Amino acid sequence: MMAFAAFIVISMSPSALGVAWLSIQQTFQVSLESLGVLLLAVTVGRLITSLANGRMIAHFGTGLLLLMGSLVTMAGLVLMAWSPTWDMLLVGSFVRGAGNAMIDASLNTFVAAHYKASRMNWLHAFSGIGLTLGPLLMTFAIHNSEYSWRLGYALMAVPLIALTVGFLFTLRQWDVPVTIADQQFKRTDVATARETLQLPVVWLGMLTFFFYAGAEVGAGQLTTNLFTEGRNISAETVGYWITFYWASFTIGRFIFGWVVDRMDAHLMVRLCLLGALLGAALICLNISPSMNFVGLGLIGFMLAPVFPTIMSQTPGRTGLRHAANAIGFQGAIAGMGVSILIAIAGWLAEGYGVEVIDLCLLVGVLTTFLLHEIILFRESRQLTLQMETK
Q1: How far is the C-alpha of 149 from the C-alpha of 153, rounded, in Å?
Q2: 29: left (phi over 0), alpha (psi -120 to 50) or beta
Q3: I want to staple 81 with a disulfide (CB 3.0 to 4.6 A). Which of 28, 67, 154, 201 is the partner?
Q4: Angle between helices 34-51 and 53-60 (to 10 degrees)
């Protein structure tokens, strides 16, 4: 239950930015391109801790790393809420990103090593609850308080107090072997980062997460500007649309968390990415406001199981020795995909108009689909070669 609660808490602030961004723009008088800079600050924080995930787990243990991550995340949110300048907001975002990554990578590694894909999907389903609550809380704060977006981030820091206490009292439980898989993981030496990066499958996985994350977060953040500025839909309505996007995302993770153990996981991811492509196409076609809404919800629902399902397959693809590093790398590169791809989309929107955003979403989902197909093709070819050898 602590893992589920942690994913709810750390997922609120990332999705809230999609609603808070317009107010942040007005507060600091920055352009849409600056959204990429803000996300880059988060990414750099995530990158530093994610790349060291394997070594930090080996040195500190999962329990202590989770406790440290909770404290760092809380500090980052407080800095964001009371930042007097744009530069201070960037510092707070960096700190929050670092803390989030400590919790996120540690829990992903723990669950991937010990449980089935369904448990990973359920873990990320609770992340979806946080992703849904974040925009809702931020929308309420902006429209009902003189402190606007600052109040939203301050309120998100409060649950971290309880989370910190919870990790403190369960410190030893995260490092106690509970299954045979866990015992094997404990006995396996953690590979160095250089050794893990020599595996081609790790690079393919990282690229897949890079484009996936850009599409997932881009749909929840960039569409605010697309719908308000490009399609004349009110900011308040779009705020609730973004909330619905993350709600459909959450529902999808709960449903697919039940489905994934009852059908071929590779087929499920393939079908889901095709469904997300359909949703992106509906937004591109812009048939009507209602179809934009349907397309956004479809993207959220169909992308839901992609990240946790591929993540849960990582130990099987890389081996337990490389799993902690690979999972950390994938989480870090996902953050880079968010900042870099959204920055590129923002730059294109400034130069060619906000309508280019829908094409960016379509390309992001399509590229994720193609990369996943390459991974499956490589695995199929390796299996065939192994059978021929025997």
Answers
A1: 7
A2: left
A3: 154
A4: 50
Structure tokens at 62: 């999962």
pLDDT of residue 294: 92
Query: Would you list the domain boundaries of the chain?
Result: 2-389
Question: What pLDDT sits at residue 175?
Answer: 63
What angle, rounded to 10 degrees, do the helices at 62-81 and 86-114 form?
160
Amino acid making up residue 347 = W
Rounded to 10 deg, the angle between the 53-60 and 86-114 helix axes is 70
Rounded-to-integer distance, Cα 341 and Cα 182, Å: 36
Q: Shortest CA distance to 53 belongs to which of 101, 10, 100?
A: 101
Query: What's the CA gap between 365 and 45, in Å, rounded?
Result: 25
8 A C-beta contact, residue 164 and residue 71: yes
Is this model's pTM higher than 0.85 or not? no
Q: In sequence order, what are the residues at sequence separation of 6 or more whose Cβ sits closer than 8 angstroms to the Cβ of residue 101?
A: 45, 46, 47, 48, 49, 50, 53, 69, 331, 332, 335
What is the topology classification, in CATH, of domain 2-389? Growth Hormone; Chain: A; (1.20.1250)
8 Å CB contact between 21 and 221: yes
Q: What is the pLDDT of residue 315?
A: 80
| Count of other CB atoms within 10 angstroms of residue 377 | 10
Reported as a single tens digit per residue, the pLDDT across 223-272 is 888 998 888 888 878 888 888 898 898 888 888 888 887 888 889 999 99
Residue type for 346, please?
G
Residue 165, both tokens: 């206490």
Cα 141 to Cα 14, 20, 179: the distances in Å are 16, 9, 44
The segments of the chain whose pLDDT lies below 70 read 147, 175-190, 388-390
